[in-house]
Amino acid sequence: MPRTAKFATEAVILDVGHGNCAVLRDGSKCVIVDAKSDKLLYQELMASGVRRIEHLVLSHADTDHIAGALRLLPNEDFEVGTVWVNSDSQKDSQQWHELLTLLTALHQAGRLKARLAICDLDGWDLSLENVSIDVIHPTFTDIGHGTGKRGRVRPEITTNGMSVVLRVLLEGLPALLLPGDLDSAGLDQILSRDKEVSAHVLVYPHHGGHSGRPEESFAKILCDAVSPNVVLFSMGRGVFRNPLPEVVKEITRSFPDARVACTQLSENCHEGTVPEGERGYLLNRPAAGNTGNRSCAGTVRVAVADNKLVVEPASLDHKRWIRQHVSAAMCESGRNLPVPGPRNP
Question: Which of 17, 196, 267, 279 shows its CA 20 to 30 Å from the CA of 132?
Fold first, then answer.
């Protein structure tokens, strides 16, 4: 049954499989960060009653962050304000070229504005009334230098290290850090600038994949800076074996109170046939994992209730399913927690 449109302030991290997409809503207005799947994004916007996309921010040029934009942007069901991208001379994919061509055509037709630069000076322009967005990275100087090796006066800036990193506040509360595919080179730059990056939910960069540094070290340094209550991996079962076990192991070791969750069930947690156990905890939101029974946390919602940030699906119900049905759940490894009993009526 379709959801009744209910305007709210919320952040929805869509389960798009291997990729990223977040919808930041403030009433009937929204900002979208990355767009792996046009179909799931279309379904989410239609069900939420949103027809106006104020901003679409594409963190970087990888296909698993931009593919859905190619098909969503020409769709006349939506009005689009501004699309923000950063140039990348090292990306030579056909989809990236097609997207730049499409944005040029739509801009010239008056359908949207296309901005070929997003940096730490642009957070005010992106923000909505109850959704504040701080562009943590890259800086204006990074954009000016572009990607490339370390020089006389500039640091190394890799393609992934140039990913746009956003800190999102919902009604003034630090809700999300969205780091795209940030790697160790980019993280070093952020930390050297002493930027505030704390957030309730960290959507872990690069889907829990390789960072360019020993993974345990990267995970600890990043989580030390962010101090998340929830670490979420946006990943797809059957694509790459993400998140890497050493990443999850370090997070659960160093941050035992943090909730660790994956949008889809990792093959590092459960090989072979996906368990059929009841998943009544999943949200009634579009999710790629609904096909083939691949969901773990599924699509995740962050909102404000009683001046506190809440994350859905609820942790207890989700953990109950994991402990009853997942053979080697990385997020529970070493915690020695009992399997919860049945829910109270």
Answer: 17
